[in-house]
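comment on this one:
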Amino acid sequence: MHAPLWEWKPYFISYAYWHQKDKFQFVQDSYAEWVMFAVENGSFRYRIGEAAGTAIFGDAILCPPGVVFEREVLEPVSFHFIRLGWPTDSFPSMLPNAASYRSEGTSDFTPPVQLTYMDHNRLSSTYYYIHQLTRLPDEQRLLLWDHYLNDLWQQHVVESGFSQQTSGQQDKDPKIVEATRWLQQHAFEPVSLKELSASQDLSPVQFTRKFHAAHGTTPIDYLTTLRMQKAQTLLLETDMTLEQIAERCGYESGFYLSRVFTRRMKASPSQYRKMHRV
């Protein structure tokens, strides 16, 4: 019998970040270790054994070693590429969204999984701190990598326990997938959610309900998360003024950006910049 999911602790092997990748070098590949493709923005289509779907922000694709991973970029995709391992040679057999495959030369069944995160604010924060690891000394960075990898896993485990998942959950509502892609592409421009819902033949109420069911957050909170990600990056990596950052993030003024940022991040942009810059 397998240990409960929360007792499983993946360990970190290696990491790379791919920014706005418009195509994969190989349309299919396999790896010697487990790999995770954690999408930060953009989207790609994948197939791993019997599991197939579209990965967007809020999704991480977990592929077992030695299994063919087919993939195709739909929209230029930025993602965290993590090689990882598990404390034993077998993987929990009862995972949400599991789809079995048979490894060559073995009769064991192991589930490749699409991990779908509901709390995008927390996920965005985790991704932000993962980016900041590059600023740290090697020993400290490697120590923290195990922490953040486990944080990604435990967030999935906790959210899985709260949600009522079905075997058909991977078949996402195509209208919401399309609307989500549009939001990712146009997040830093003026956005009318009323017009977006109308483009999908949905009323604003229907759109919000369907979007929340798919992502665990409202369209406006999803949009705000994308904008806050960019604002955080610009605050720490540039010397832009608040007005310049607001313009880059889709806000009408630095004053309005400051209000939203302070409410979301519990610190003003100037405080945030001072606390996190090194």
User: Anything to note?
Assistant: Residues 89-109, 164-170 have pLDDT under 50 and may be disordered.
